[in-house]
Specification:
Elements (H helix, E strand, L loop, with lengths): L5 E2 L7 E4 L26 E3 L8 E4 L2 E6 L8 E2 L4 E2 L26 E6 L5 E2 L3 E6 L5 H15 L8 E5 L15 H11 L9 E4 L7 H4 L26 E3 L8 H20 L4 E4 L4 E6 L6 H18 L3 E4 L9 H7 L3 H20 L10 H5 L5 H9 L7 E5 L9 E5 L5 H11 L3 E6 L12 E5 L2 H6 L6 E2 L1 H5 L4 H16 L6 H4 L16
Helix pairs in contact: 1-4, 2-10, 5-9, 5-13, 6-7
Length: about 525
């Protein structure tokens, strides 16, 4: 079994988590004399002192719950013996009160990226085919497979072809106030830096989300020389649309032929692009966690937080998200805001999401999963404290509502649901060109539009999923790495992956899911 070990996050904590693989049996004695009164699984909490019924249980120096029964020292503390605290109020919060000394800038760090006409930089060179409605997804999927087989080998400078498929576009209340969220999400994803300014659309024809509504004529889109297009310079010339209901199509294969023919035009231009040396400040990194466990806030997320601070010091943009997984730490976030206006914007997003959950007769407690609990996270309060540390310690300089596009540098709070693929989709819409994803339970998450660096919280997971995890943060718990050393390792890995010098396991296996648009508006 080896030496019995636990990790206590703060001197004021009255619980700690068991480190040892497989957990520890009743009767185990730690070096400080603490004796387990029952078996405690790995990552689960053990009481460091006697806890009377009603006593506050503290981890991260935060009350994560109240004991629902007397818990002797050495007891297993889990969700069954904890009463969750009420959600913190959104009034009377500290607003932009933390004024840390600025850290010195990191200069001289670069990567090889694809510079776009709007000044943004891609880490990959991908042809994306936007869809206006779910009805065309099957046709686009067939076309994409043919493009990959027949065209892509001719264009070695192009990394991939992806269909931006989703479940929106019709059968929805498209004029409802909240419909702006999925529409602007899809619009901004179409302009992601990894797509090289090449916008191609496949439409059905009768859908509510018409191409001109998705991508308005006043938007600066490149004229496309395809059959039937309006002359360059006219408003109609901006959109390159293959409409399946067009009279020119006389069967399924003619639809496929049209899509393939138009894709070839875009691929030719993308293939002329070359990587160039750009500063690390051109990175737009989204951080997220999924399948979290009690080690997420001990190993992987703190190391990602340190790397986030390095990115901010290098002038880059870093987005952290997941409303329900930071809601219980809102006081920490508003205090770190650069201005009261930024702090209030965070509060506004939390309030909007509280109301959204209330409409569905749910609350933040619905967030935690059976896997989270099996991994030692008793409730959303504990999960939130471990999630927030992904954001590091930099001041929070901006806030994005769901689906909005990023317009500034620094650490940004991008409000999203905590669902993995909805969060990833919204971060892509914001302009993410590189993704960091931490996991404790394990998930084969991937995004076709963006490299995803997967970070395992535990060495056991990294060993078992050796060809899915890119970084093993479990080395921190084992004492062979520190948060700082692993943070620097991830920083350099990000530069290599952004440059195309390395690929992630998710890229290797081509792991990706369809876009999951956040649609709080009614379905009709």
């Amino acid at each position: 079994m080896g030496q019995a070990l636990y990790i206590r996050m703060h001197a004021q904590d009255n619980v700690a988590i068991v480190v040892n693989d497989g957990g520890l049996p009743a009767g185990t004695v730690f070096d400080d004399g603490l004796t387990l009164v029952q078996k405690v699984p790995q990552g689960h909490k053990v009481a460091l002192v006697d806890l009377a019924k009603g006593a506050a249980v503290r981890r991260y120096n935060v009350t994560i719950g109240y004991a629902s029964q007397d818990l002797p020292r050495g007891s297993w503390v889990n969700e069954q013996v904890l009463q969750m605290p009420e959600a913190p109020e959104l009034e009377g919060l500290p607003m932009a009160t933390v004024r840390p000394d600025p850290l010195p800038p990191l200069e001289g760090y670069t990567f090889e990226g694809f510079r776009n006409a709007d000044g943004s930089v891609g880490t990959r060179n991908i042809l994306a085919i936007t869809t206006t409605v779910q009805c065309v997804a099957g046709v686009v999927d067939v076309a994409v497979q043919r493009i990959k087989a027949e065209l892509l080998p001719r264009y070695p400078q192009v990394d991939d072809v992806v269909g931006l498929e989703h479940t929106y576009g019709c059968g929805v209340a498209i004029d409802a106030p909240d419909a702006v969220i999925p529409i602007r999400t899809l619009r901004n994803i179409s302009r992601n830096p990894n797509f090289g300014d090449e916008i191609m659309v496949v439409s059905l024809g009768c859908e509510k989300l018409q191409p001109e509504r998705l991508l308005p004529a006043e938007a600066p889109l490149r004229p496309m020389p395809h059959p039937g297009a309006a002359p360059a310079g006219g408003a109609a010339a901006a959109l390159d649309v293959v409409c399946l209901q067009s009279e020119e199509h006389t069967g399924f294969m003619s639809m496929i032929d049209s899509i393939v023919r138009q894709a070839d035009v875009h691929l030719q231009r993308l293939n002329r692009r070359r990587r160039e040396t750009v500063p690390a400040s051109e990175l737009v990194v989204g951080v997220q966690c999924g399948g979290s466990d009690a080690f997420s806030g001990v190993t992987a997320n703190p190391a990602v937080g340190f790397a986030s601070d390095l990115l901010v010091r290098a002038g880059a943009s870093v987005m952290f998200s997941e409303v329900t997984e930071v809601r219980d730490g809102i006081d920490q976030l508003t205090a770190r805001a650069t201005t009261p206006a930024v702090a209030q914007a965070m509060v506004d997003q939390m309030a909007w999401y509280d109301a959204y959950l209330a409409r569905g007769r749910a609350d933040r407690s619905a967030n935690t999963t059976p896997g989270n609990k099996k991994g030692g996270l008793s409730n959303i309060v504990e999960k939130a404290m471990g999630s927030i540390v992904k954001s590091g310690s930099a001041p929070i300089s901006g806030v994005l509502a769901p689906g909005e596009k990023l317009q500034q540098k620094g650490l940004i709070y991008a409000a999203t649901p905590a669902s993995d693929f909805i969060c990833g989709t919204l971060q892509l819409a914001a302009g993410m060109n590189l993704h960091i994803f931490t996991t404790g339970r394990g998930t084969p998450y991937g995004l076709a539009a963006c490299p995803v660096i997967k970070v395992a919280t535990r060495s056991d997971l990294a060993r078992r999923w050796h060809d899915l995890m890119d970084v093993n943060a479990g080395r921190i718990a084992e004492g062979t790495e520190t948060i700082e050393s692993l943070g620097w390792e991830m920083f350099h890995l990000m530069l290599d992956i952004a440059s195309g010098k390395k690929k992630t396991w998710a890229e290797h296996w081509k792991l990706s899911n369809a876009l999951v648009l956040f649609n709080p508006a009614p379905v009709t």
